[in-house]
Amino acid sequence: MTTDYVLNHYAFDAVAFLRDYWQQKPLVIRQGFIDFHDPIEAEELAGLALEPGVDSRVVSCKNQQWDLVHGPVDDYEQFGETDWSLLVQAVNEHYPPAQELLRAFRFLPDWRVDDLMVSYSTPGGGVGPHLDQYDVFIIQGQGKRRWQVGEPGLYIEHCPHEDLKQIEGFEATIDVVLEPGDILYIPAGFPHAGESLEAALNYSVGLRAPSQAELLSAFADDALDQNKLQQRFRDRTSDLLAGNENELNDCEPWHISPSVVSNFRELLQSALADEGQLHRSIVSLLSRNPRPPLPEWPQQPYTESALIYTLQRYDILIKAVGVRMVTTVLNEQRFAVIQGHWYALDEDDAEALFVLLLESTDYLALEQVHPYLNSSQARQLLLGLLNEGLFMLDHDES
C-alpha cells in the first residue's frame, strides 16, 4: 500500500532539529509518521533482491557465529526462523513507491540523500554493533525493533566475517524499542546496534557525505575531461642554487626537500583557487549517482528537427533507474546538471520541464511533456537526456 509520507509536525520540528540535533546528537522521534504504512512488503523485498543490479545481503548470527551471504538469495529456509536480516540497498531506485518516503526528508537538500536501504529482520535479527561514517534516519515499519546508541569514541573494530565490520561493545545512552512510524536519527560516528523483537521492516535513509579524497578525485577528473588546469610545475631558483646565484645547492640529488613540496602545494592551491572550476566539479560530482544508472542509448541519435514527430509515435517517457538531477548557477547562468551533463535553463519552460522530469519516479505520460516543447532550451534538455540514454521513449501497454 502506498501513501503520501508527511512528517508529523507535532512530533518533529525541522528547524529545531537542524539547530539542536543535526550532526550533533541522536534523536528518537516518536510517531514521526502517523498511521505509517510500509511502502513495500517483506515478500516484495525478497523478490526485489532477486533482480539483476540490486545489491542485497543476508546477515545472520547462529550460536554467536556471524555470517553474511550476498544476494541474490532464493531460499530463506536455510536461515531458519530467527536471527537473520535481509538488507537491500537503494530500494527507492528499483521500487518507485519507496521513493515517496524520501520526500518527507526534503528539509535537507536532495543531493544530501544517498539512498533508502530496507531491511527485513526475523526475531533476533541484526548486524551487530557498528559505526557509520554518514548520518542516517531509521524509520520503523512493520514490527518492533530495539535500538541502542552510544557516544562517539575510540572503539576497537573487528570483522567477524570478511564483509561485516563491527565494534566492541559500547555503553548505550539511548535504549529504545521503535514501533511503526517511529524514527531514530543517528549522526555519523555514533555507535549503535539494532535487534528485532519480532518480524520487522526498517527503512534507513542514508545521507551522502563525500570525503576529501572523493572531492579531489572528482576535481581532477573533471579538469582532465575539460583539458583544464594544465599549468605545469616550475622550479624555484632558490631550490637549485645555494645562498648565492653562483653556487649549486649541495643537497643530495635524490633528496626532495620540504621547500619543493611547498612549491607543489602552492601549485595545487592555485588550482583550487579557480572558483569556476571548483564549482563545476563539485556540482558534477553531486549530480552523479554513486551507483551509476544503466543508460539505454537510442539506436540512432535523435535530432531536434525530428523530435516532435518522434515523440508523437510514443506514449510515455521512462526514467532510467537512479538518475540524479540538480540545478546550479555558474557565471550568472542557470543550469540543470543531470548525471554530470550540463544544460542551460534560461527559459521558464525549460525550468518547468526539468522539475517535471525530476519529480517523476519512473515514467510519465508524454502528453505532460508536450506543453513545454515550444522552448528551444526545453527541447535541447529532453534531446540531451534521450541521447544520453537517461530517459527512454516507449509505448503504454496498460
Name the descriptors.
25% strand; three-stranded antiparallel β-sheet; alpha+beta; eight-stranded antiparallel β-sheet; single chain; Malonyl-Coenzyme A Acyl Carrier Protein, domain 2; 3 domains
What is the CATH first-level class name of the largest domain? Answer: Mainly Beta
- CATH topology (level 3) name of the largest domain: Jelly Rolls
User: How does the helix and strand content classify structurally?
Assistant: alpha+beta
CATH architecture of the largest domain: Sandwich
Integer-rounded radius of gyration:
26 Å
Mean pLDDT: 94
Number of domains: 3
Globally, the shape reads globular
What is the number of beta strands?
19
N-end to C-end Cα span:
20 Å
Low-confidence stretches: none
Describe the structure.
- The chain has helices at 14-20, 42-48, 91-94, 96-102, 212-225, 237-240, 258-272, 275-286, 304-311, 348-359, 376-387; strands at 27-29, 56-62, 65-70, 84-88, 113-121, 136-140, 145-149, 157-161, 164-167, 174-178, 183-186, 192-196, 200-207, 316-319, 325-330, 333-338, 341-344, 363-365, 391-394.
- Helices cover 26% and strands 25% of the residues.
- The protein is globular.
- Strands 1-11-6-13-5-4-2-3 form an eight-stranded antiparallel beta sheet. The protein has a three-stranded antiparallel beta sheet with strand order 10-7-12, with no helix packed on it. Strands 18-14-19 form a three-stranded antiparallel beta sheet.
- Helix 5 packs across helix 8 and helix 10 (348-359) packs parallel to helix 11.
- The chain is α+β, with helices and mostly antiparallel strands and 398 residues long.
